[in-house]
Amino acid sequence: RGIYVCNVPGRNAIAVAELAFGLIMALDRQIPDNVADLRAGRWNKKRYAQAEGLYGRSVGVVGLGDIGLAFAERAAAFGLRVHAVAKPDRTAETHARADRAGVAYVDDLDELVATCDILSFHVPLTQSTRGMVNRSLLAAMRPGTWVINTSRGEIIDEKALLEALDSRQLRAGLDVYNDEPTSSTGTFD
């Protein structure tokens, strides 16, 4: 029928990286809470003038593909210390971009989790990434860690995340969910 189908990996890398960084900014400045309070007629300038700030904090990038690298570059521009897991099979181009962004490598995911204030996930959904953010990984995070996910909802055990948000003072910025509607609009619980 003359229909061309193309796979164009990385085409939306900058947009997704910006979204992930936007979620971090929203968490730091409590933007969603502020908007919800204002819409409900509540004014609390004292609370919403407070922020931890990003400069000098550490962010772990899980997945250094096109999106992860674009995210790392933006994080470095904001003065975050960027970390990722060392992997021997990365291309020279990936290493060069990571070096320019100042990425420091750690040996494994456990060390990354123990090292970082913020973890941003940029991985495809595979057998090894499905449910990778589980009770065990969440328990290894320091209290107050922020979890950012713009990759696939299925990489997170949502029940375990909800429990960790309540018990470990974690915060989350999510753009994807396990049971999100398959169409561009729909109801969501």
In short:
By secondary structure, the protein is an alpha/beta fold. Helix content is 39%, strand content 13%.
Topology summary:
Blueprint: H1 13-29, H2 31-39, H3 45-48, E1 58-62, H4 66-77, E2 81-85, H5 92-100, E3 104-106, H6 109-115, E4 118-121, H7 135-140, E5 146-149, H8 158-167, E6 171-174
Helix pairs in contact: 1-4
Main sheet: strands, sense, barrel = 6 strands, parallel
Instruction: Give the number of DSSP strands.
Output: 6
- Number of helical runs? 8
Q: Could you estimate the helical fraction of the residues in percent?
A: 25-40%
What's the alpha carbon Rg, rounded to whole Å?
17 Å
Order of strands, widest sheet: 3-2-1-4-5-6
Structural class: alpha/beta
The rounded distance between the terminal residues' Cα atoms is 40 Å
- Tell me the overall shape: globular
Q: In percent terms, what proportion of residues is strand? A: 5-15%
**Average pLDDT number:** 93
Give, in order, the helices and strands: HHHEHEHEHEHEHE
Uncertain spans, ≥5 residues at pLDDT below 50? none
Report on the architecture of this protein.
It is a single chain. By secondary structure, this protein is of the alpha/beta class. It is built from eight helices and six strands; from the N terminus they run H-H-H-E-H-E-H-E-H-E-H-E-H-E. The longest helix is centred in the N-terminal third of the chain and has 17 residues. It starts with 12 loop residues before the first helix and ends in a 15-residue tail after the last strand.
